[in-house]
Amino acid sequence: MNARDAGRRPFLERLWRTPIPRPLIPLWGALAAASLAYESALAARARYWKNRSARAPIPIISVGNLTVGGNGKTPFTLYLANLLRARGWRIAILSRGFGGRLSRRGSAAMVADGGRIFVSAADAGDEPVMMAHRFAGPIAIARRRIDGARLLAAHDALDAIILDDGFQHLGLARVLDLVLIDESRGFGNGWVLPAGPMREPAGALVRADAIVYVQRPGKAPSPRLIAAAPREIPTFRARLCPRALIQSDRGGWREAPLDLAGRRVIAVSGLADPNSFRRTLAAEGAVVAANLAFPDHHEYSDADLGAIADAARNAGAEAVVVTTKDLVKIERFAGALAPLYALELGVALEPGDEERLLALAEARVRGKCATHQDQPDGRDGGYSDGD
Fold first, then answer.
1. Helix (H) or strand (E) holding 211
2. How far apart are CA 354 and CA 369, in angstroms?
3. How deeply is 285 buried, as exposed, middle or buried, from its count of CB atoms within 10 A (0-12, 13-18, 19+)?
4. What CA–CA distance (Å, rounded) separates 20 from 17?
5. Could you report the average pLDDT of every consecutive run of 10 residues in the chain (387 residues)?
C-alpha cells in the first residue's frame, strides 16, 4: 500500500518553513544552490516565451498559482466556469490532464460536453473528469494547450476558454491571468523549488492581471503572508467551504446532505496536502478515526481498496470520505466501501467581489485585449510544451 501517515508532514515541507530547523540548515543550503540555478532557468524561460506565445482562436482566461500544492485552483476554475455560464457565456475548460495517458502521449482530446463524459480518469487525468461531473460545458485536455484550445474552437462556438492551472504555461497567450494565493500558507519561505515551495519567484506576479486570496476551511491566515503584488493589480478574496457530500450512483453523482457532525469516518485522499482534507472534515464535526494519505493523483488498486476497507473496519468507521478528484478513481469500488462519500468544496467570494470579477472578465474578454505574451499573427513561434 502506498498510503502514508498523514500526520507526518512531507520532509521537504520542514525545509520550507521559516525559520529552518537548525539540524536541517546544511541540507537546505545545498537545496538553496539548486534553487538559484532553477530561478535563473525560469528567468531565461520567461524571456524566451515573451514574444513567442501562441494566440488561441478563443480568448483565454487562466487560473493558476505560484506555489506547489493545492491552492484551490480546480474548485475556483469550476466556480468561474459555472458563474460565467450562468450569465449566458459560452464557456469551455481546458486542462493539461495531468497523470492521464492521453496527456503523457501528447494527445489533445475532448473529455466531456453536455453532461456526457467521453474518456476515463485513467486516460484524461482525475481533475478533468471530476470537473466534467460538475460542469456541463465542453472540457478538453492537451499537454500543448494551444492544441486543446484549437480543438475546443473547432468543437463549438465559444466566448472564452478557462485554462486550469495555466499561470506557468507561457506558450499560450491569455486575455486575463488570475493567480490564487493560499492565505494560510502564503509563499512559505519565499524560495523557489527545491529549497522552497515556489514554482516561480514572487516577482512573477507582475504578469498577473488579478490576485485571488483563498481562505481554506479550518486554517487561519498566515501572519507571514507575502503581499508582493504591484499595487495596481486588483485583488479578490475567496473562501473554500464544504458544500455537499457526493455519492456515486450508476456512473452519475448525486448530492447527500452535508451531515458529518459526530460521525466516525476515515479520510482517504491523494493530495499534495492531505492534512488539509483531515482538517476540513474535523471542522465539519467529523471524528476522523484514520487519515490515509496517498500520493497526489494516485491511481487506486485492488490492494489499496483492501487496505482502505481494513482501515475502515479496524477504526469502526461509519463511512469512508474521499475528495471529489479521488472519487472518480475509487467509485468503481463503491460497493465494497459502502457508505462511500466525497466531500465537495465550493467557492464563495466576498460581497461585491463577484460582480467586480465579472466586470473584469467582461472587459478583458469582450474587448479581446490580450495583456501578456500576445502574438498578433497567432504563430506558434517554435512552440513546445510551456510547462
1. strand 210-215
2. 21
3. exposed
4. 6
5. 50 71 80 95 94 94 91 94 97 94 90 95 95 97 96 97 96 96 86 93 93 81 58 89 92 91 95 85 95 91 93 95 95 85 95 96 80 41 33
> Can you name the residues that pair with 372 across neighbouring β-strands?
174
Do 288 and 266 form a contact (C-beta atoms < 8 A)?
yes
**What's the grid cell of residue 14?**
520542514
Pick one of 1.10.3470, 3.10.620, 3.40.50, 3.90.550 as the CATH number of 241-345.
3.40.50
The pLDDT value given to residue 381: 32
* Per-residue pLDDT at 2: 55
Backbone angles phi, psi at 292, to 5 degrees: -95, 115
CATH architecture of 60-240+347-367: 3-Layer(aba) Sandwich (3.40)
DSSP per position, 338-367 = -SEEEEEEEEEEPTTHHHHHHHHHHHHHHH
* Under 8 Å between Cβ of 109 and 142: yes
Q: Which amino acid is at 66?
A: L
380-to-102, 161, 164, 238, 316 alpha-carbon distances in Å: 22, 18, 20, 35, 57
Separation CA 147–CA 229 (nearest Å): 31
Q: What is the pLDDT of residue 252?
A: 87
- Which three cell numbers mark 68? 506547489
Domain residue spans of the chain: 60-240+347-367, 241-345
Asked whether 356 and 304 are in contact (CB, 8 A), the reply is: no
Q: 83: which 3 cell numbers?
A: 458563474
Is the fold of 60-240+347-367 the same as that of 241-345? yes
Q: Which long-range contacts (CB under 8 A, 24 or more apart) does 334-337 make?
A: 334/247, 334/248, 336/305, 336/309, 337/305, 337/308, 337/309, 337/312
Contact predicate 345/219, CB 8 Å: no
